[in-house]
């Protein structure tokens, strides 16, 4: 089984908590860590933006990515939310088993 960590940014802690709870409730992620604040500098619609955001790190199985992405897009306020999956190359066997047991 393959595992991933999915990075998602939000504009507020309230939105981060709502998305994190939704993903765990739907069993699309075993755990979602919320890191705040992060400072993001990016180009959007031709302008350089500089924003304070929250970073979510969702731990899940690779096979759930499409469903997780759809759920995030439904819950998210951004027009184009960051949803980036990073492969987990190795990890504690008990932790990876817990991810499997905690997700759909």
What does this structure look like?
The protein contains 3 helices and 4 strands. The model has no long low-confidence stretch (mean pLDDT 97). The protein has one domain (3-102): Alpha-Beta Plaits, CATH 3.30.70.120. By secondary structure, it is an alpha+beta fold. The protein has a 4-stranded antiparallel β-sheet. The longest helix is centred in the first third of the chain and has 13 residues, at 13-25. The chain has helices at 13-25, 65-75, 93-102, and strands at 3-10, 31-44, 47-61, 83-88. α1 packs across α2.
Structure in a nutshell:
With 104 residues, the protein is of the alpha+beta class.
Q: Name the CATH architecture.
A: 2-Layer Sandwich
Amount of beta strand: 35-45%
What is the H/E string? Answer: EHEEHEH
Helix content: 25-40%
Average pLDDT for all residues: 97
Q: Which CATH C-level class is it? A: Alpha Beta
Multimeric state:
single chain
Note the total helix count: 3
């Amino acid at each position: 089984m393959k595992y991933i960590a999915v990075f998602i940014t939000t504009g507020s802690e309230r939105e981060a908590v709502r998305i994190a709870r939704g993903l765990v409730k739907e069993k699309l992620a075993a755990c979602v860590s919320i890191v705040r604040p992060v400072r993001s500098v990016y180009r959007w619609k031709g302008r350089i933006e500089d924003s304070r955001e929250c970073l979510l790190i969702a731990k899940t199985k690779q096979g759930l990515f499409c469903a997780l992405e759809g759920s995030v897009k439904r819950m998210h306020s951004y027009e184009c939310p960051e949803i980036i999956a990073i492969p987990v190359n190795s990890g504690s066997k008990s932790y990876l088993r817990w991810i499997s047991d905690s997700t759909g």
